[in-house]
Structure to design on (332 residues):
């Protein structure tokens, strides 16, 4: 299959986010080892669930002796935000054959979703599905490699390195936001999301960000109309 | 827990999560949503974006550290200021991260 320019652009734009993604999964690999998850089990969870917050939630709950059903339920509930992301992406990919969409649906995650969303707002967005695939592909080795490195390191990673690597994504996303805000309602969405999310995440861990975003989206869209 | 139990959890949570990811392509993907629904999706996405940033900066791994927050905010402000001046995302990004690591090392 030929690789399009949009696919390459997607790969390029994903690069600055990779160190943070890699580090997040190093953290998961380390946590999995500390929770006595067999390496094969840790890898299977990474590949099947493909979302760090849900993986952390499952590990947290497993330590407190939850049942298998509870672990599966928390893993799914922690990922409810993907439904909203896929609704948005489905509007951008309306011309793509369903078979291809269902194949690539497994890679719906925060970074491909947000970067594709920003690209869709440009004057010439190009082929957004190729762009999304281009973002998704380099994330796969970062996620699996991060898990492997985390399992290998245990608790021995240098603190400054981890600290620095975790900053790539928030600073990168802040720069993209600064470039892309187009109206005062969008500015309000960003301001409210930035200030309210930490509070709601503290109150309802794993749910706060999704509830906050959907609540703000609903409020502002109603206010504007 | 045994390996088989972990594999069962991976399968169960993986299938459930895949349904959440794939269902909208089956349900809404064939239809064009109206203006208000699109606005809702845009504001929700922007809010997600800002939430990712603030969660990473303020409560990485669920922990709050005032000194680290100060370092991160300094790095963020420097990166934004550099971008305003140089219009280079990568240079601004790496400068901000490098500054944060240096501050963390010396503090």
């Amino acid at each position: 299959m030929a690789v399009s320019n949009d696919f390459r652009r997607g790969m390029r734009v994903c690069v600055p986010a990779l160190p943070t993604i890699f580090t997040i999964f190093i953290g998961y690999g380390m946590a999995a080892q500390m929770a006595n998850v067999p390496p094969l089990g840790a890898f299977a969870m990474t590949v099947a669930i493909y979302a760090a917050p849900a993986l952390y939630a499952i590990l947290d709950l497993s330590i407190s002796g939850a049942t298998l059903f509870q672990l599966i339920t928390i893993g799914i509930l922690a990922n409810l935000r993907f439904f909203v992301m896929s609704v948005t992406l489905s509007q951008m990919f309306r011309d793509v054959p369903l078979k291809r969409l269902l194949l690539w649906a497994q890679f719906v995650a925060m970074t491909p979703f947000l970067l594709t969303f920003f690209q869709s707002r440009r004057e010439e967005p190009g082929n957004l599905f190729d762009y999304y695939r281009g973002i998704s592909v380099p994330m796969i080795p970062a996620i699996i490699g991060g898990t492997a490195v985390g399992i290998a390191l245990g608790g021995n990673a240098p603190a400054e390195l981890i600290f620095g690597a975790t900053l790539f994504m928030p600073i990168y996303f802040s720069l993209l936001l600064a470039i892309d805000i187009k109206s005062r309602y969008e500015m309000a969405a960003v301001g409210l999301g930035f200030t309210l999310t930490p509070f709601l995440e503290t109150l309802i861990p794993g749910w706060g960000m999704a509830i906050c975003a959907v609540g703000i989206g609903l409020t502002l869209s109603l206010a504007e109309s | 827990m045994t390996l088989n139990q972990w594999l069962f959890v991976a399968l169960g949570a993986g299938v459930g999560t895949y349904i959440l990811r794939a269902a909208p392509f089956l349900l809404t993907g064939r239809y064009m949503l109206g203006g208000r629904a699109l606005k809702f999706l845009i504001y929700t996405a922007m809010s997600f974006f800002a939430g990712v940033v603030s969660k990473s900066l303020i409560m990485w791994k669920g922990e709050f550290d005032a000194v680290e927050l100060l370092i991160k905010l300094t790095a963020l402000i420097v990166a934004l200021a550099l971008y305003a001046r140089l219009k280079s995302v990568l240079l601004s990004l790496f400068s901000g991260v490098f500054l944060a690591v240096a501050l963390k090392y010396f503090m």
Notes: The CA atoms of residues 2 and 8 of chain B lie 10 Å apart.
